[in-house]
Amino acid sequence: MTTSDSEPPDLPWPKPAAPGPQVSRAIREGCTRGLGQKRCVPASHRLLGSLALSFGVFCLLAWLTRGNSRIDGTFRSALIGAAGWGIVQAMILWVGLTRPPGRRFSARLRLVLAVLTPVLFLGYVAHAAPHWVSFFEFSHGERAAHAVRCTVVGLAFSALISGGVLLLWRGTDPFTPGLTGALVGLVGGLAGGLTIGIACPSQEGWHACFSHGLGALAFAGVGWAAGRRLLVP
Amino acid sequence: MDSGRDIHLPSARIEELMEAYVDGNADAFDELYRRVSQNLFGYLLRLTRQRERAEDLLQVTFAKVHRARGSYLRGAPVLPWMLAIARRSFLDERRHASSRTEDLSFDGNLPEPKAEDVAVPADLSAALERALDVLPEGYREAIQLTKISGLSIAEAADVLGTTETAVKLRVHRGYTQLRKELERFNRTV
Predict the structure, then answer these.
(1) Chain A with chain B: Cβ pairs closer than 8 A
(2) Domain segments of chain A: what residues?
(3) Under 8 Å between Cβ of A151 and A189
(4) Dihedral sign computed on CA atoms, order A217, A220, A223, A225
(5) Does B45 contact A at CB distance below 8 Å?
(6) How many whole angstroms separate alpha carbon A66 and alpha carbon B140?
(7) A141-184: per-residue pLDDT in tens?
(8) Distance of CA B107 to the CA centre of its chain
(9) B160 — contact with chain A (CB < 8 Å)?
(10) Is the pTM of this model over 0.90?
């Protein structure tokens, strides 16, 4: 179906009406009074700032927790995994934010990215876990307390990164603020998950899924809501 | 005042005018306003169907544009960008209004002002204007943006926050209803 299929021919479409002269005068005065050059940060700078924030927080926590006891070899493999997911984060930011709004990749592609990436990340975290205990064991006693502590720290780092990136892009997208916010939240959630994955000595499967992996999914949702408020001009 | 780089205003694209305005060029704003205000006002008038409300919303829209000019990402299409801001201003205003004491319709929206039941329109132009006014809001918006404001289907989809297919569908259904209204007019005259 095309729009012209059923278009009534040669319709005298009305010309847009003009606002009153007083209104126009008031708007002109309001918008030009004391008008100076506004510093307009280009998208490429905002993108670099977003990546630097994510990478900086990751490095800071990795450095602070470098003395934590870990199973031999897991720290190195976690770093390699984090580097891979760092590339994914950069790609998400590039697809979701670099082009100006109105010229971005299709909303459908970005939606697929926002939904599929956290699911894949969760799958990766589960797959990378070297051992699993029973769910009962995981959800009781010291393991449960450790999981809660890890979740809180991971969410705090995700919030720090997502909030920082949202502020960097504040007011830039009147078209799809929810979707853009979801991608920003996803980047923060991934960074938080990877950061806590490096800092936490536990490699147990349930723990990795709940405390390290679920944050990405949760923050995609949080980003959706936050983006609708913060990214709209 | 630093007016940024020099541009030839009458021949500049509105994106260039916006960039010059961001750089502090007041003349560029005047030209920009001259080029886009009728489109924005026409759209708001079509949404509100009340001149005073549309004028208030136009002022709100430009106040937001002025405040947000620093976050305008260069290269973004200006008219859809401003229309999206205008639409959000309208939706915000309607949400605030509905939380006050007005009577709501069954679906929770403000009752739409009824098209006045006046005499038969004098000509096709007036009949079309009336037919547009009785269209459901979604169809009316889609037709306004694509046929009167001159946006492409993709740009209209961006402004409405929906897909291109949905915009095509709304325009198609809008046309179907318009045709019925205009046939009624043709039978009457």
Answers:
(1) 162
(2) 51-230
(3) no
(4) negative
(5) yes
(6) 61
(7) 888 999 999 999 889 989 999 999 999 999 999 999 999 999 99
(8) 24
(9) no
(10) no
